[in-house]
Design a protein that fits this description.
Blueprint: E1 6-11, H1 22-28, E2 32-36, H2 46-54, E3 63-68, H3 72-82, E4 88-92, H4 102-115, H5 122-130, H6 136-146, H7 151-162, H8 167-172, E5 177-182, H9 190-199, E6 204-208, H10 214-217, H11 219-235
Helix pairs in contact: 1-11, 4-7, 5-6
């Protein structure tokens, strides 16, 4: 990529701390510049989160936005509105509308206030987020990142997920989009990606063996794929304007 460094803006998951991007940033290395977004506890909705992200735009070019799970519909909306300032979009375990079925959605909405009242256990972290074979160190990292976020904030953000709709925004996107899809995600099912492919058939997809927090479990593999994507779009600058 010669002397030009691509800037990555990393949008966090539900906990909003951005701490869980440390491994990915390390694997991306000094060839790239990474800026991690942090959502304050007062950031309870996508409207709140959008205000936080918009304050960081525009960044120096080339510029790629990376988002995981909770932040993916927000990233799609921002990319659709600001695509003249963005070269590419990377989405991990993404969705553009409620990723849960009707029954699952009702259950999640009802159970969340009770579930989030308690600290995240290692069993819950391994079951839903990082896989049963996750190393203890990663379990501790996830617990440390999630722990400080108040239960009511997590509930509000979950309600935002259940009510999101970024489908029209996805239709408007012209810049390259890469989706990283976990093969063993227990929170966001495959239908969410299939919906995105129906809306935008030219979205690129990389399927990687791993759980929901894929960027944390497989940071090296994900970094390699993201770096190749960035190199490709930067070497073809006209793609964003097609």
């Amino acid at each position: 990529m010669d002397s030009v460094r691509t800037t990555f803006l990393l949008l966090p998951g539900l906990e909003g701390s951005g701490e869980l991007y440390a491994g990915l940033v390390e694997e991306l290395g000094p060839a790239f510049e990474a800026k991690i977004v942090k959502y304050p506890h007062g950031c309870r909705s996508y409207r709140d989160a959008r205000t936080v992200v918009r304050q960081l735009l525009p960044l120096s070019r080339p510029f790629v936005m990376v988002a995981e799970s909770f932040s993916t519909p927000l990233a799609v909306q921002i990319a659709a509105d600001e695509q003249d300032a963005i070269d590419g979009l990377v989405l991990c375990n993404a969705f553009v509308s409620n990723p849960l079925s009707g029954f699952e959605s009702m259950w999640a909405s009802a159970a969340a206030p009770w579930f989030f009242r308690f600290p995240l256990t290692s069993i819950a972290a391994r079951t839903f987020l990082i896989g049963p074979d996750a190393p203890d160190a990663l379990v501790a990292e996830v617990q440390h990142a999630v722990g400080p976020t108040p239960a009511d904030v997590l509930c509000a953000r979950l309600r935002a997920v259940l009510g999101c709709d970024a489908r029209d925004a996805l239709r408007r996107i012209r810049i390259p989009v890469l989706c990283l899809q976990s093969t063993r995600d227990r929170l966001v099912g495959g239908e969410a990606l299939r919906e995105m492919q129906r809306i935008k058939p030219d979205v690129s997809v990389e399927r990687i063996g791993g759980p929901h927090l894929l960027l944390q479990r497989e940071p090296c593999q994900c970094a390699e794929i993201i770096a190749r994507f960035a190199d490709r779009i930067v070497s073809q600058p006209s793609a964003a304007g097609d």
